[in-house]
Structure to design on (334 residues):
């Protein structure tokens, strides 16, 4: 019986969420990042209709989470141990083999050796254990944010990340496709090129393009002046327009306004993306960096998700750590 990763819009029995817990990592941004994650937790548990399992990685983080969210219905605080909050990459990828839920874990090497923190390599075991789901281990380096699944055998990815020599040296596209097929039941890999500039993940696809419905993919279009990722957005859209999914269906491509240029604090473009939205059971929660392009992105997503409430929440402090809402979560399918 084959293994399948359901699409993110399929029902969830829980949503895992990482809570900033280490002052030495977040420094002056810790309190603001905790507030943004707390707002996300409330939105997930409320309009999103999720059972939120909020994982903390340090006693100080647990104490802060209990102070901020301990009385919020639908939010369960799960003390754990992690290097940082990026559960999409360090945690397992959940899927189903028939009616049975499985968690699949991969080697994590700190996004190619950039940020190797204690306990990150144990997150998948902790989450699978707390979920009561068997963990199947695979001896390849892979992060969850490097893939986006349509639930029908196709995944989106970028060659910049998946074929990077700092992950699985010597991998070709054919080798990667074979590995994804064996580990995750992938029938067709849809290859994009480069991701966002200054993204320490080496171009994770969940900042660039996302499945939003069967045969439908969203990707950014440049908003305003000075967006250094304009070429990457347009290249992704061109490639997607020429692709078909595993069933041979031609993809429909929908362009969503980008946040425009977001300064990383040193005059460089930060890897800010509205594509890092999170699909909850009854809501879609999109990170907002600037008011006007954020409002446009919300309107576009409302057309794509008419049966879900689209909620925009600030994510500027979380972004200082390198990611946003999708990066710090992992859905557990129903």
């Amino acid at each position: 019986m084959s293994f399948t990763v359901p699409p993110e819009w399929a029902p969830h029995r829980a949503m895992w969420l990482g809570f900033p817990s280490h002052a030495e990592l977040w420094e002056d941004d810790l309190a603001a990042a905790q507030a943004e994650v707390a707002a996300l937790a409330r939105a997930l548990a409320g309009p999103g209709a999720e059972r939120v399992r909020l994982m903390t990685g340090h006693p100080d983080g647990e104490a802060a989470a209990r102070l901020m969210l301990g009385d919020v219905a639908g939010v369960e605080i799960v003390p754990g141990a992690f290097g940082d909050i990026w559960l999409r990459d360090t945690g397992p990828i959940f899927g189903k083999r028939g009616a049975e839920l499985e968690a699949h874990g991969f080697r994590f090497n700190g996004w190619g050796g950039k940020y190797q923190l204690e306990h990150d390599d144990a997150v998948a075991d902790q989450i699978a254990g707390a979920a009561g789901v068997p963990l199947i281990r695979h001896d390849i380096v892979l992060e969850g944010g490097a893939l986006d699944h349509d639930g029908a055998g196709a995944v989106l990815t970028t060659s910049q990340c998946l074929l990077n020599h700092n992950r699985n040296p010597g991998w070709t596209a054919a080798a990667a496709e074979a590995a994804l097929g064996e580990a995750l039941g992938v029938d067709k890999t849809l290859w994009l090129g480069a991701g966002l500039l200054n993204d320490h993940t080496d171009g994770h696809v969940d900042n660039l393009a996302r499945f939003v419905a069967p045969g439908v993919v969203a990707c950014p279009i440049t908003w305003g002046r000075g967006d250094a990722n304009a070429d990457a957005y347009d290249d992704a859209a061109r490639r997607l327009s020429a692709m078909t999914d595993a069933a041979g269906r031609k993809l429909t491509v929908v362009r969503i306004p980008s946040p425009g240029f977001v300064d990383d604090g040193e005059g460089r473009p930060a890897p800010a993306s509205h594509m890092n939205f999170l699909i909850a059971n009854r809501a879609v929660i999109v990170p907002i960096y600037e008011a006007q392009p954020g409002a446009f992105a919300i309107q576009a997503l409302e057309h794509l998700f008419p049966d879900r409430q689209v909620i925009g929440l600030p994510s500027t402090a979380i972004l200082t750590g390198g990611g946003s809402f999708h990066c710090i979560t992992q859905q557990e399918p129903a």
